[in-house]
Write a structure and sequence with these properties.
The structure is a single chain. This protein is an all-alpha fold and 86 residues long. 62% of the residues lie in helices and 0% in strands. The longest helix is centred in the first third of the chain and has 47 residues.
């Protein structure tokens, strides 16, 4: 009798996991579509208000020299200027 109950529990657990994974998949698809629509409208609004073109423009700095081989990059991450440990 215990083997039958164990088999039934395993079957119900498998069906439950399958249903939940299908629901999670549908939720992820809906989320991706909504975020895609939001990004699309954001791009249209950015294009109409010319906010995207000013952000992408780079200025060339004339008169600068290339870095020499003695210049080293120390560490990773954001540089913190003037911050001391407390």
């Amino acid at each position: 009798m215990g083997a039958v109950v164990s088999c039934m529990q395993s079957a119900f657990r498998a069906v439950g996991r399958t249903v939940m994974s299908v629901l999670y998949g549908i939720g992820n698809i809906i989320t991706a579509v909504v975020y895609g629509i939001i990004d699309f409208f954001g791009a249209i609004v950015g294009c109409l208000t010319c906010s995207g073109s000013s952000r992408r423009r780079r200025r060339h700095r004339h008169g600068t020299t290339a870095a020499t081989t003695s210049t080293r990059r120390r560490g990773w991450g954001r540089r913190r200027y003037g911050v001391s440990a407390i």
